[in-house]
């Protein structure tokens, strides 16, 4: 299975059993996620997520709440998190949209996407999440779970790999979230070099409580600075998507409409990014 990150809480889990897109979001002034094609889409928080950017397969399943599901050999369970402020039992606290943590079991690996809860999960919620190999954990921000609570939760769940999400990127600052460095300090570790994706089948396994930082594969848009780097990254991402779609086509022997559309979309994004890069170079 390959895990890729697209900014905020958006991940793609791609396996031989199918593709899951977790927490897609609409374009923001700073981030522009690519078009996705998926058979399963999960939304942990309706205030942060939007699946309109996802091209769904004909039998695509959309999950946005608690429950237990089995879809094409992929097992998924949604665990309800808090629905109110600092205490979900406080009837006087202002109501919030409920947050759902989703746990995925595929190809022998269990991945937990925590969403962005407003409080530390209870012992019962942690028990419902169960044993986790890969924990997608939020760095968080104001009025959301704090960095210390996230660190404590990682100690409780004891995953093999920790992948941060919902944090403010240096080139795309977002005052809703803290910076990644705060989590590393709380965990008592140094930030590793970002990697393009995490392959759970890699040699040597996943380790134990290992912090893994993934590159943001969404386009980072800035009003000032040097746009060439972002358009180049967008071009590489689009080209990679095109190659992935072609590989899927060769594996299946007969690409479905979704695979062909994905390939054409990726090629169009690649051409657009290349044109933007040429325009940038001409202006310089």
Strand numbers in spatial order across the main sheet: 7-8-9-10-11-12-14
Q: Outline the low-pLDDT stretches.
A: 83-94, 224-235, 251-259, 279-284
Distance between the termini: 42 Å
What's the order of the H and E elements?
EEEEEEEEEEHEHEHEEEHH
Beta-strand percentage range:
25-35%
Average pLDDT works out at 78
Shape: globular
Tally of separate helices: 5
Fraction in helix: 25-40%
Biggest sheet: strands, sense, closure?
7 strands, mixed
* Secondary-structure-derived class: alpha/beta
Q: Strand tally, please?
A: 15
How large, in whole angstroms, is the Cα Rg? 19 Å
What characteristics describe this protein?
single chain; 284 residues; alpha/beta; seven-stranded mixed beta sheet; six-stranded mixed beta sheet; 5 helices; 15 strands; disordered C terminus
What would a concise description of this structure say?
This protein is α/β, with parallel strands linked by helices and 284 residues long. The protein contains five helices and 15 strands.
Describe this structure as you would to a colleague.
α1 links the parallel β10 and β11. The protein has 284 residues and is α/β, with parallel strands linked by helices. The C terminus is likely disordered. It is built from 5 helices and 15 strands. 36% of the residues are buried. The strands form 3 sheets. It has a 7-stranded mixed sheet with strand order 7-8-9-10-11-12-14, with helices on one face. α4 packs antiparallel against α5.
